[in-house]
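help with this:

***
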Amino acid sequence: MNAAEKYQAELIQSEKDHHTPTAGAMSGHILANLFIQRNKLRQINYYLKGPGKAFSVEIAAVIKKEDELFDRLNQLLLDEGQVIPTTTAEFTQYTMLEESGQLKYEEIDSILFSAVQDFNTQNLFVVRGIKLAEKEEKFALMQFLQDLYGWLKGQSRLFQSFIGHDALEGLLLEDDDDDD
């Protein structure tokens, strides 16, 4: 098979995996969400002003950690023989996070709360990924996703705290017990 044929086979398999969710397909969404959130956090960090600028160090640390998590998840998926998203088009297609050039001009509380919402949106996919990885007996992936879940929860609380909110304030909590 040549490169074009291999890529076509990958696209066909990816489409199949997304219609009958697998841990690999769900992890593709998780990767896309991490990828887009890193861009959004960079945008936030570049445009922080006033008292919000004090939070810049924490945001930079989150970006660095998300880079590490992104690379580690890719390696775990490759270890499992999964195909990973690698193009901007794939990340855009698979993400559930929304970007906005307007965000950088919003008030600091709105900007940081958008990151809180993104952490929580990511965890919707992480929870589903954990369940699928367990079902498919991909235990290293399951462990990574469990750790990612806790880390995302911690970041959400940290950002909430900076803007004077309780950990779950303003969030609509989804029922994670639905069937996949």
